[in-house]
């Protein structure tokens, strides 16, 4: 049987991270994959060297549109590590609340896409519906639905006022109910089990070898979470658990993310109740960054974000290194997708959640004759048809 | 204290390799080593300390190209160990690749290769990761002497 190539990507208008996957298929089975990135390389690290420290924080906020507080969070962690700044409790609580609200809406965004790829458009509509109130609350607190600009060295830009707390509480109740619904939808549906269990497996040792991060690692039984391991902000002042599952398949990745939403709600509730009794200082007004080196980490929805700063005592960094979690997670596709069928490849590649929606650009064509085999929407249809078929059989 | 224990263990297991050990704070250690010892030191951290390779940072300094290999001791107090290596020859920088130990280093070595021009010996696929195909050879954007007006591909 001859080997065919299915190119996926690189551009898609909905999501901000173009990637190019070249799937090598024999019949229906994926036998190899090439990954190419760099279509969206904006030279942020170089650009940051010409910015002042406080400008760098705004700059890195523009790296990602979905988890837009992850980079500034890690960035201020790095600068505070460099300067040895001890924060007030109020700052820590507010930062954790913002970080966790973002985790919930980011996981719901992924859940919606995963539902769509599997042919569960109801899940897609619902999860994006319940994502909306979270964005509204973020707007209420920060002034922006996205790109909150909350982080600054030594503090946060805005306080959470006493009268806002009941609003957030009410929204969390709604989200909790919605999450029960999603958990039920995933756990009890035999078709989702059939589509995702044992599919796209990333084994534990592969996760360690590739240095996988975040939910991808935790779904492969690799219990790492920066919030627990290297606690920052308020994560060591509240009670919560890491969600770990050993299977490493798509189902585990689904369940880990849904369970993490419960933990996020738990963290936010505790932070809110402690906020009532904490001192009112939320910003230390730090101006100068001394010479030295600093490393900051933050557990973003997709895994550990890493920032490194070197300062020579001037107001600009000598070097600013940024590492997003997808940098480590995307290569794991090489381990997960090989051996899958083409109809499972869509959800397997999407399960990494690399801000990925290049799928509608998918084309399959014969390498020699360049005739098109599958068009963009055909591949999603293929995936959805498999679900429909399974639904009938069960 | 867990940090003291890790430092003791580092001194024992990396004995003779450590040129300088700087304790920035309880969770950040910087270990200067010679570039010939990098693969063995990384192996000890990865296999014996069970550290996770987080990422590497390449810098252009006055003394040469500096590479920091960041390792995280995740379940041991979150201690972050950065192995610091200096490659003095800026015209032809070379260092052994870590890709024989773990796949996690493959992409970042490709990135440092294109951004700073470091040749990683033994890398299975040392080609560009992020830069465009028509980016001129021998121009390394993260070098301090790089001037962005010169030698860039023309806009279409």
Care to give the gist of this entry?
Chain A is of the alpha+beta class.
Give your account of this protein's structure.
The complex is a heterodimer of chains A (394) and B (156). In chain A, β4 (151-152) and β5 (155-156) form a beta hairpin. Chain A folds into 2 domains: 3-40 and 329-393, 2-Layer Sandwich (Enolase-like, domain 1); 44-327, Cytochrome-c3 Hydrogenase, chain B (Orthogonal Bundle). Chain A contains 15 helices and 10 strands. In chain A, α4 packs antiparallel against α11 and α4 (89-118) runs antiparallel to α14 (342-351). In chain A, 48% of the residues lie in helices and 14% in strands. The longest helix of chain A is centred in the N-terminal third of the chain and has 30 residues, at 89-118. Chain A has helices spanning 44-48, 53-61, 70-83, 89-118, 121-142, 165-188, 190-196, 204-210, 214-218, 226-229, 250-275, 326-329, 333-336, 342-351, 376-393; strands at residues 3-8, 20-26, 29-36, 151-152, 155-156, 292-300, 303-311, 317-323, 364-365, 372-374. Chain A starts with a strand and ends with a helix. Chain A is α+β, with helices and mostly antiparallel strands. Chain B contains 3 helices and 7 strands, in the order αββαββββαβ. In chain B, the strands form 2 sheets. In chain B, strands 1-2-5-4-3 form a 5-stranded mixed β-sheet. In chain B, β4 and β5 (79-87) form a beta hairpin. At the A-B interface, α8, β6, β7 and β8 of A face β3, β4 and α3 of B.
Q: What is the distance, rounded to the nearest whole angstrom, between the alpha carbons of the first and last residues of chain A?
A: 32 Å
Q: Using a beta-carbon cutoff below 8 angstroms, give the protein chain pair with the largest interface and the number of residues from each chain.
A: A-B, 34 and 33 residues
Classification by helices and strands of chain A: alpha+beta
Shape estimate of chain A: globular
User: Overall pLDDT of chain A, averaged?
Assistant: 85
